[in-house]
Amino acid sequence: GQQVMQIPQYQHVQEGEDFTTYCNSSTTLSNIQWYKQRPGGHPVFLIQLVKSGEVKKQKRLTFQFGEAKKNSSLHITATQTTDVGTYFCAAHMEYGNKLVFGAGTILRVKS
Amino acid sequence: DVKVTQSSRYLVKRTGEKVFLECVQDMDHENMFWYRQDPGLGLRLIYFSYDVKMKEKGDIPEGYSVSREKKERFSLILESASTNQTSMYLCASRITGGRNTEAFFGQGTRLTVV
Fold first, then answer.
1. How far apart are CA B97 and CA A101, in angstroms?
2. CATH 3.40.50.300 correct for A4-110
3. What is the pLDDT along chain B (114 residues), one digit of tens a residue?
4. Do B56 and A92 touch (CB under 8 A)?
5. What CATH number was assigned to the domain covering residues B4-113?
6. Strand B42-51 versus strand B54-57 pairing type
7. Are the beta carbons of B59 and A100 separated by less than 8 Å?
8. A76-95 residues touching B, CB cutoff 8 A
């Protein structure tokens, strides 16, 4: 089964509020990737984190990789309607060939 | 830009039919993947391939098989379609070898088995 757990499954926020999704693994990860899927679209790569404790920012999005490399988070500051979609974390398993996704967090933004 | 193309956007098949889903990528990627996406379950890996004629089972391979005769093409086969295989199917590819690389997805095939 899936080896990467992601929560929450669903979040509905008011425009301007913050949003966070979390990803956890029982095993140490070599890296973690984040993808966004717009409604009706396909997943599109956002970013990759590799180093322990790494923090990366893309405008209003902040990505973190835990010190133990077993968890990660994506935080969106002041959500906008353009942020709606499903956010997935993904990790390479079994010597890097197998790419496994979390279940995703669906974000809805009320304007 | 990398392009991953799936042969159909929508398919309707009857129970028991043999179904072929085709995926082609144009960037010489060695790694290709088939996922199915269902509400609340995210993307579940069915099969992946890291080279021509090489294939590995993912997390839910039962009822499926794959074929990788050419580097650019990765086919998913449902030998005898069943209604529980109604789903969105997504193909992806990524660059050869390295672990720190992004996956590129096709537009998806929504399969309905009636």
1. 19
2. no
3. 669 999 999 999 999 999 999 999 998 898 999 999 998 888 999 999 989 999 999 999 999 999 999 999 999 999 999 999 999 999 999 986 555 589 999 999 999 999
4. no
5. 2.60.40.10
6. antiparallel
7. yes
8. 88, 90, 92
